[in-house]
Amino acid sequence: VQLVESGGGLVQAGGSLRLSCAASGRTYTMGWFRQAPWAGREFVTGISWSGGYTDDADSVKGRFTISRDNAKNTVYLQMNSLKPEDTAIYYCAADGGSRWNVRRHAYNYDYWGQGTQVTVSS
Question: What average pLDDT does this structure show over 61-85?
Answer without folding.
Answer: 97
